[in-house]
Specification:
By secondary structure, the chain is α+β, with helices and mostly antiparallel strands. It has two domains: about 20-60; about 65-150 and about 265-460, Porin. It is about 15% helix and about 45% strand. The chain is built from four helices and 16 strands. It has helices at about 1-60, 185-190, 215, 435-440, and strands at about 65-80, 85-100, 110-120, 150-160, 170-175, 205-210, 225-230, 255-265, 270-285, 290-305, 320-330, 345-355, 360-370, 390-400, 405-420, 450-460. A hairpin with a 3-residue loop joins strand 8 and strand 9. The longest helix is centred in the first third of the chain and has 60 residues, at about 1-60. The radius of gyration is 34 Å and the shape is globular. Residues about 1-15 have low confidence and may be disordered.
Length: about 475
């Protein structure tokens, strides 16, 4: 028994010593691991600082892109003044906008837009002189030029205190957004851009500066914007003569435009906007088919949008609008404008409504222009020509539906009934107003459109 107790004591002491050694080594290893972990944490922290710096740099140093791709099919029909018809049952098109933006800081912004707009299976803008411009079989495989459409490219500066007062202001120069303006944007399902859509819808190079007067006047949304632009140049191209880029007096003068946009009131629900402009040295085609400088033109418009009628009813999101526009020619002393050597005045009015319906938006619009009405709406997105330029009556109905976050669809019907010719012409003899009876009497009935219709369906991807 004594031997057993002694052996047990020896075993216990041995185990105790072994445990003591084991605990000591374990504690040492834990201390070592904690030291290594602290070093790793320190390295990770340093790396995170570097990564955050890289992320912050990339966030400000990369151009941000988004895509707007629209596939459309239009059924168009023209009723000519002589009773004949011309049509295209299925004009299919693809329009691609690649939008880009870059802001290195809170005051400076770059924006641009690359554009691609073509008919299915055709390259209508690149005639090769032997009837092959309607084929599109080798557009991206053949050696061609360096063309790339740049629809917008401009910088925008955001200022804080103009003239030392609490007047936020902006300054912008470049190929500015001057299409799909106020009110036109509703049927296009886009945000309204700078101009008033009733009388200006063209691409232009120029500059603008806006002054937000709401803080100093106490009137919601009041602002004043100065706009200038140039629509053509008469500079000689390189290698066309011994002198390059000087003015060629044998061709058209530079086409310039200057004006302002004044917003008396805009609280989001009630939006009232006006514009006034003068366009200088406008071109027109003479009887011989040559383009010559004809004179100047003044224009103005006032447009009102009511965004929402009665709260907590089906009309809470209803949009109603009305617009009135005016134009006046100022021909050079030796020229005529719109077929007249006198100064001629034209007017147009435009009304519309947009109502939420079955998860989408239904819109209905009507506009009328008189004999000498002339707009700058050559880029309006209608295959049969600008409806807002119509010297006569135009009616349009559309329904837009958002299928999901990226896809939307629209069906649209546009009809134009012309009272006078020349609605889509330039500012010379092409713009001469003639009644349909006068056109037929002059033997021009087969060349003059009396009525035009366009039915469009599209699917649009935006993201």
């Amino acid at each position: 028994m004594k031997k057993i107790v002694t052996a047990s004591l020896i075993a216990t002491l041995a185990l105790s010593q072994a445990n003591a050694v084991s605990h000591s080594e374990l504690a040492s290893k834990i201390d070592s691991l904690e030291s290594e972990l602290a070093k790793v944490k320190k390295k990770l922290s340093a790396q995170n600082v570097k990564i955050n710096k890289v992320k912050a740099h990339d966030a400000a140093d990369n151009i941000k892109w988004n895509v707007d791709l629209r596939t459309s099919i239009d059924t168009i029909n023209y009723d000519m003044a002589d009773g004949s018809e011309r049509s295209n049952d299925a004009l299919m098109t693809t329009r691609l906008w690649l939008n880009m933006a870059y802001a290195p800081d809170s005051q400076n912004i770059f924006k641009g837009q690359l554009s691609y707009n073509k008919a299915f299976g055709a390259d209508l803008g690149n005639s090769r002189g032997w009837g092959m411009d309607t084929f599109d079989w080798i557009t991206n495989e053949a050696l061609t030029g360096n063309s790339l459409k740049v629809r917008q490219a401009y910088w925008l500066y955001l200022g804080e205190n103009a003239f030392g007062a609490d007047i936020p202001w902006t300054l912008s120069v470049g190929r500015r957004p001057s299409t799909t303006g106020f009110l036109s944007s509703l049927r296009e399902d886009d945000k309204a851009q700078s101009p008033l859509g009733h009388n200006i819808d063209v691409e232009f190079d120029g500059a603008s500066s806006l002054f937000n007067l709401s803080n100093v006047t106490g009137i919601s949304g009041m602002s004043f914007k100065i706009c200038t632009g140039q629509g053509s140049t008469n500079a000689r191209p390189m290698f066309s003569a011994d002198t390059r880029y000087d003015e060629d007096t044998a061709v058209l003068d530079d086409v310039k435009l200057v004006g302002f946009i004044f917003v008396p009131y805009d609280d989001g629900q009630y939006q009232l906007k006006t514009n006034v402009f003068r366009a200088f040295d406008l071109p027109g085609m003479n009887a011989a088919g040559a383009m010559t400088t004809r004179g100047n033109m003044d224009g103005a418009a006032v447009s009102l949008l009511v965004d929402g009628l009665v709260e907590d009813t089906m009309f809470e999101e209803t949009k109603l609008f009305a617009s009135f526009a005016w134009s006046k020619t100022d021909p050079d002393s030796t020229q005529s404008m719109l077929g007249s050597t006198d100064s001629e005045t034209g007017t147009s009015y435009w009304v519309g409504v947009q109502q939420p319906l079955l998860g989408g938006n239904f819109g209905l619009e009507y506009n009328h222009g008189d004999k000498y009405w002339r707009s700058f709406t050559y880029a309006e997105d209608t295959m049969i020509g600008s409806k807002l330029a119509a010297r006569g009556d135009a009616i349009e109905a559309y329904y837009t539906y958002q299928l999901n976050e990226a896809l939307s669809t629209q069906i649209r019907y546009t009809q134009i009934d012309y009272d006078y010719t020349g609605s889509n012409g330039f500012f010379g003899d092409q713009g001469t107003p003639m009644t349909m009876a006068q056109a037929k009497a002059a033997g021009m009935g087969a060349m003059v459109v009396e009525k035009a219709q366009d039915i469009r369906f599209y699917i649009r991807y935006r993201f």
